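Please check the following for our workbook:

***
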Amino acid sequence: MTGPVNETQTQMLGRVDRGARRLMSLIENVLTASRVESTGTRRLTDPVDLTAVVERAISGVGHLRWGRDLDVVTHLPVGEIIEVIGDSESLERVVENLISNAVKFTPDGGLVEVVVTTDPDRDHVAVLEVRDNGIGISPDDLSRLFEPFFRSASAVKSAVQGTGLGLGIVRSVVEEHGGSVHVESSIATGTTVRVELPGLSRRDVRATT
């Protein structure tokens, strides 16, 4: 037995844990980017519950909120499962990257919202939105967000940690799934990232079986 852990040791262990998690996230992003680049577009045929993917992703990045005064609110469909055709692990990486960015770029006292729904104007389109009221992105930087290793001026100024890989991976995976990703943002107001994916609701799946 090593005895109880004191406050200083707890803080040190917390820093080690956060560092290890950041390293693991970086490794996973690099592996995802390498896989997409090397294999190109895969034939994706498996139905994936997008709500379940979001729930796992939120749990996976929960450590980013440790010691933070930050609300993460989900708006998920009630009584309906929204499915997309794809790879659940890759989509989970998409959601983790988006939530991670929103949390990192939103100061304490802020709000991050994660929304899963369908497009009311288009059949069979699933929509994932991650919104925050954080530091925002300037118009000059918006067009470069998906470039590998690009970091916005607001991120550099605020000394927010990151590699600039996340959004590029998000776009690659989303496009591999036949979808699209759009970003709206303004300085000191916040950012909304909208992902649209070809999808089927549970009701549609039953109708075709």
In short: DSSP finds seven helices and seven strands in the chain. Residues 50 and 83 are 6 Å apart (CA to CA). Strands lie at 47-49, 71-75, 82-85, 111-118, 125-132, 180-186, 190-201. Residues 203-209 have pLDDT under 50 and may be disordered.
